[in-house]
């Protein structure tokens, strides 16, 4: 770096609405972005947070928090504690009380670094009482070229225009471009207009890289290019209306879209009530949920700004109360595992590896990477610090396994059977066929792996199961588990109960679970682990492991699937809907897995992986 830089600055660039598939579909039209992708570090896609909206995702990227944790749960929302409405079109968005968590520019400021933001959701708000050192109030009319030129001005400020407290330049910068999102909304993701928008943002990225080269900064600045979400084609034929299922819709409103929420009209008095019913019909595109029953992987329940009634939509579908506002062009907001919602990531600069492609990851992991690049301590967040170390040439943070909080209970017995005969006579006792100490009764000590599947079926773990759920549990073990085992050349299976009555995504306190009666689990978890090299079994695996994990709601009926009768063919799709990361299971159980075979960094990558297909 030039002598006026004490360290490599970090530039975070957002290309709003840049769908991951655009990289492949339009590769010939984005030569600059493609060159950065091929020469730096990238992933096939990164997973946004749910809902896949602009403000929630941009704020998750810079805080490392899920929307339920940082409070920006949508582009439009209601706060019952203040009876206040948030909208991007009103000045309410400047009220810092909406913004929880700590964005990276605040983290940097607390640790004596300077920051400069040319637009970013929350950057023109005094979050925790702090603005970036230099910032611009959002104005979409400012040309992209002018935004880039301003960033260059900040990168070369004369000493008399720098901060009063120090003569150093800013260490962290942001640059935000509305395209291709704006064109995607208006014309649809497959349109010629989106193609032109992609060409334009590629041209702007060319201006940026040329300017860095002219200033001898192209080998100095670390650049992270991201998008917040993808884009889906809108269709009036893929809109469904609550009024088709409920006769009286006068008492509530629907925040429409692909992640629709239901809110009572009498606010704040009836906000927490849920006195409405939507008829569930098999194969309908809209599935009603109370927020506490949504798939745990969505992390979309533990905030008062999230209405209790939620409509989960199939890919490509939107919901409204009577009529849809936008049923042409494009939209986003759907389940964050849907292919068209996936976003992009490119890391380029002296800190990033070259010509490296890493597996997909979730955007909450980027905050810790930014803090590492800036040499600062991250604030508490939902990411797993060190899970993206494989992106960097010289990672700053070396993760360790969590410390053991409880110890093995010592066994006072000297052996499995008393050595003293106790003056008893039992002539019919045959000890070697009656006592089984280290295996399932009726099994050989070195039984085949497939036989061990029955253990989680016959062992109750002292947790009661609803009869309807037990049918699903049995179907999984009898039908699906042998199938998965064959696909993976054997699997290791771990399963157990989950207690999360307060739906905060963390294990309930022991006082809540313990009592005179056996507590009823809210969920059961399953973790299947196999060898990525399918020629090896899990026990003999040489190389990386692969995992599939699920957090299954424990309910007294099959109403979620609209199933009645004994046909359980729906279970596999339901299982996939409730897929999860191993890390989610750890948080919900207080357990920690995979301590004895892999490095800590490899373990974190395994734990944060989400099987999406």
From TrEMBL:
ENPP1-3/EXOG-like endonuclease/phosphodiesterase domain: residues covered: 382-600
Stretches that traverse the bilayer: none
Record's signal peptide: none
UniProt cross-references to InterPro entries, sorted A to Z: Alkaline_phosphatase_core_sf, DNA/RNA_non-sp_Endonuclease_sf, ENPP1-3/EXOG-like_nuc-like, His-Me_finger_sf, Phosphodiest/P_Trfase
Keywords carried by this UniProt record: Glycoprotein, Hydrolase
Domain of life: Eukaryota
Alphabetical list of SUPFAM superfamilies matching this protein: Alkaline phosphatase-like, His-Me finger endonucleases
UniProt KW Disulfide bond keyword: no
CC terms in the record's Gene Ontology section: cell surface
GO molecular-function terms, A-Z: dinucleotide phosphatase activity; metal ion binding; nucleic acid binding; phosphodiesterase I activity
Keyword Hydrolase: yes
Any one biological process term the GO annotation gives: negative regulation of fat cell differentiation
Family matches, as PANTHER family: ECTONUCLEOTIDE PYROPHOSPHATASE/PHOSPHODIESTERASE, ECTONUCLEOTIDE PYROPHOSPHATASE_PHOSPHODIESTERASE FAMILY MEMBER 1
UniProt-recorded name of the protein: Ectonucleotide pyrophosphatase/phosphodiesterase 1
Naturally occurring in which organism (per UniProt): Salarias fasciatus (Jewelled blenny)
């Amino acid at each position: 770096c030039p002598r006026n830089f004490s360290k490599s600055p970090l530039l975070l660039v957002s290309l709003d609405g840049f769908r991951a598939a655009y990289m492949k579909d339009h590769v010939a039209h984005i030569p600059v972005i493609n060159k950065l992708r091929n020469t730096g570090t990238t992933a096939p896609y990164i997973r946004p947070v749910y809902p896949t909206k602009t403000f929630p995702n941009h704020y998750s990227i810079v805080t490392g928090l899920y929307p339920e944790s940082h409070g920006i749960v949508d582009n439009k929302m209601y706060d019952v504690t203040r009876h206040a409405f948030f909208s991007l079109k009103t000045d309410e968005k400047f009220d810092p009380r909406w913004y929880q968590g700590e964005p990276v520019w605040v983290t940097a400021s607390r640790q004596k670094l300077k920051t400069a933001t040319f637009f970013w959701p929350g950057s023109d708000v005094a979050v925790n009482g702090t603005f970036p050192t230099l910032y611009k109030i959002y104005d979409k009319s400012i040309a992209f070229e002018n935004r880039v030129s301003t960033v260059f001005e900040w990168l070369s400020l004369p000493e008399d225009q720098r901060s009063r407290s120090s003569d150093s330049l800013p260490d962290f910068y942001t640059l935000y471009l509305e395209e291709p999102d704006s064109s995607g909304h208006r014309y649809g993701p497959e349109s010629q207009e989106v193609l032109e928008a992609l060409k334009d943002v590629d041209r702007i990225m060319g201006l940026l890289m040329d300017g860095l080269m002219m200033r001898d900064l192209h080998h100095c600045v670390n650049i992270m290019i991201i998008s917040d979400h993808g884009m889906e084609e809108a269709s009036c034929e893929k809109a469904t209306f609550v009024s088709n299922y409920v006769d009286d819709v006068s008492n509530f409103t629907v925040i429409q879209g692909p992640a629709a929420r239901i809110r009572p009209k009498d606010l704040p008095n009836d906000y927490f009530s849920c006195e409405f019913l939507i008829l569930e019909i098999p194969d309908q595109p809209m599935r009603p949920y109370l927020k506490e029953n949504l798939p745990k992987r969505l992390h979309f329940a533990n905030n008062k700004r999230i209405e209790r009634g939620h409509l989960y939509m199939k890919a490509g579908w939107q919901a409204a109360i009577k009529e849809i506002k936008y049923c042409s062009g494009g939209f986003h907001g759907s389940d964050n595992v849907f292919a068209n919602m996936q976003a992009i990531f490119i890391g380029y600069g002296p800190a990033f590896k070259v010509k490296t492609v890493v597996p997909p990851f979730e955007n909450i992991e980027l905050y810790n990477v930014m803090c590492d690049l800036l040499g600062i301590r991250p604030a508490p967040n939902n990411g797993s610090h060190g899970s993206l170390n494989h992106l960097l040439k010289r990672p700053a943070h070396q993760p360790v396994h969590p410390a053991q909080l409880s110890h093995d209970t010592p066994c006072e017995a000297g052996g499995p059977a008393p050595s003293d005969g106790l003056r008893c006579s039992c002539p019919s006792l045959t000890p070697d066929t009656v006592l089984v100490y280290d295996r399932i009764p009726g099994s050989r000590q070195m039984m085949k792996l497939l036989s061990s599947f029955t253990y989680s079926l016959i062992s109750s773990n002292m947790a009661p199961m609803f009869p309807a759920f037990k049918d699903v549990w049995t179907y999984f073990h009898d039908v699906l588990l042998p199938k998965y085992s064959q696909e993976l050349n054997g699997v290791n299976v771990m399963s157990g109960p989950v207690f999360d009555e307060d739906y905060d995504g963390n294990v309930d306190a022991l006082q809540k679970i313990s009592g005179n009666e056996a507590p009823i689990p809210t969920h059961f978890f399953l973790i299947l682990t196999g060898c990525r090299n399918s020629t090896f079994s899990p026990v003999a695996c040489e190389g990386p492991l692969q995992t599939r994990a699920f957090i299954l709601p424990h309910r007294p009926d099959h109403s979620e699937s609209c199933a009645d009768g004994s046909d359980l063919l729906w279970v596999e799709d339901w299982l996939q809907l409730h897929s999860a990361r191993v890390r989610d299971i750890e948080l919900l159980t207080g357990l920690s897995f995979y301590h004895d075979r892999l490095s800590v960094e490899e373990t974190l990558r395994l734990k944060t992986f989400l099987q999406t297909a």
